Amino acid sequence: MKTAIFAHRGSKGNRPENTIAAFKEAMRINSDGIELDVHLTKDQELVIIHDEKIDRTTNGKGYVKDYTLQQLKQFDAGVWFSDEYKSERIPTLKEVLILLKDYEGTLNIELKTDRIDYPFIEQKVIDAVHEWRPNHPTLYSSFNHESLARLKAIEPEADFGILLFEKLYDPWLYARHIGASSLHLYKPAALSPSTSIIQDEGLAVRAWTINDADDMRRLFALGVDGIMTDYPEKAMEIREEFKELEVQKK
Ligand code: G3P
Ligand code: MG
Description:
Helix content is 36%, strand content 18%. It is an alpha/beta fold.
């Protein structure tokens, strides 16, 4: 089985995370999937950034929720990473969906509702995806499982994964209860023997965030359905080497 490689926050290892430059890089290398994080501005616009605050990844300070989109757009979201990416801005979900119009991989939209439970963000995300009708499959995820349940109520067909830090007992029962198709597991849980049981129970397993080459090889050997990595190009090379070795063994 081929493990899908998701470009975490675009291509976080070599581009400023969650920017247009990062998503272009993920498209350039044709990663199997792209993961991004979504928050809501003061004027209810969907923006792509990881943290609740803009301090770490822009030259501004404060909470996303306290700025209008127009105000947020004044901050630089690339220069903190390198001068080469000066003038990158915090993108909107709409801008990314337009950029990815012809992308053929899977877009994983993570609802960042675990610290700030933005009211009605699930409806807004579903509306944006409907409006821009991407050709690629869309996969939702969140650490806030109530948020996922709300998403499911709005869009019963939505494909979503449950993000977990913890190692749950019989996690497939929990996943089925919410209606998820997959579990997005923190590395230690993904590397455990229960991964194959979860898959036998009919759920996909994706692991995050996998940047170490040996971890990648172990997860390819386990046959997980996907990995989220900051280094998708490196992961694709390692997967090729891994496949060649498997062929030689036969
Ligand atoms: O989806 C995997 C990963 O994105 C979850 O953690 O904090 O990078 O959003 P985080
Ligand atoms: Mg994320």
